[in-house]
Amino acid sequence: EQCDYHTTRTNMASTASLRTVFARSALLTSSALALNANTERKETKASDDCVHAPHHHWNHTGSLSSFDCAAVRRGFQVYRQVCATCHSVELVCWRNLVNVTHPELELKAMAEEVEYVDGPNDEGEMFDRPGKLADPLPKPYANDEAGRAANGGALPPDLSLMVKARHSGLDYVFSLLTGYCDAPAGKVMPAGLYYNPYFPGGAISMPPPLMDGQVEYEDGTPATVTQMAKDVSVFLNWTAEPEHDERKKNGFQNLVCMAFFALAAGYLKRARWSTYKTRAISYVK
Fold this sequence. Notes:
The protein is mainly α. Helix content is 47%, strand content 4%. The strands form 2 sheets. Strands 1-2 form a two-stranded antiparallel sheet. Strands 3-4 form a two-stranded antiparallel ribbon. A hairpin with an 8-residue loop joins strand 1 (115-118) and strand 2 (127-130). The radius of gyration is 32 Å and the shape is extended.
C-alpha cells in the first residue's frame, strides 16, 4: 500500500508538471503571436492599397521545365502588334530571337523592314539603313521626352526586365493585363486614368491594352484576353531570363556530376580506410 501511495503521488506530480509545461508553452505561443500581430500592424507598405497578384502555375517554372516556344512566339507577336506601340525592350536584339520565336531567315526579313539611324558616313551625316540581326528591337519613341509628350506626361517603362522588377513579377504582369474593371463606389478616378486593383494606388494611365480577337495568331489559337496576357507574360519572362533553359540544363548536369563524384569519393573512402577500421591491435607484455 505504501508503494502504491508513493506511485500515485509521483503520477500526480508528473501530471502537474506536464500541465505547467503546457500552460507556459501556450502562454509563450500566444505572446509570440500577439507580438507578431502587433509588428505586422505597425508595418506600412506603399503597395498596401492594391490587390496582390494571385499565384498561377506556369509550365516553365518547374525544376526541369523549359519555356514553351509556341507561347513565346505568340507573346512576341502580341508585343509587336500591341505593346510595341508604347513600350520598348531595349535589351533584346533580333539575333536573340533566332530559333526561339522564328528561324534566322524570317527574323532577318523582319529586321530589314525597320529603318535604323546609323552613321555618320564619310560626309559626317547620319543616314537610314535596313535593320540587321545585331540591332535591338525598335523603340516606339526617339527619346524619353517624346514618350512623355505622347502619353500625357507618363513615360511607358521598358519591358526588358519588367518581370524581374516587380514583386511576383510574372503573376503581376498577367494580373495587371487582365485586371481592368470599373472603379468601386466612392473611388473617384482622375481624368485620363483607369482603375486596376493590381496597380499601386489603383489608378493607372495605361488604358486596357487587350481585347478579344485583337491579334490573329498564326497557329490558330483563339486570341482571348487571358490567352494574349498569358503569352505576352511568358515572352516578357523570357526577355528577363533568356538563359533560363540553359541554366536549368547546366544545373541538372552539374548535379549529376556531383552525385557521381560523391559516390566515387564515398567508395574510395571506404576502400582506403577499410583496412584501418577492421584491423585489431594487440598489446603483448
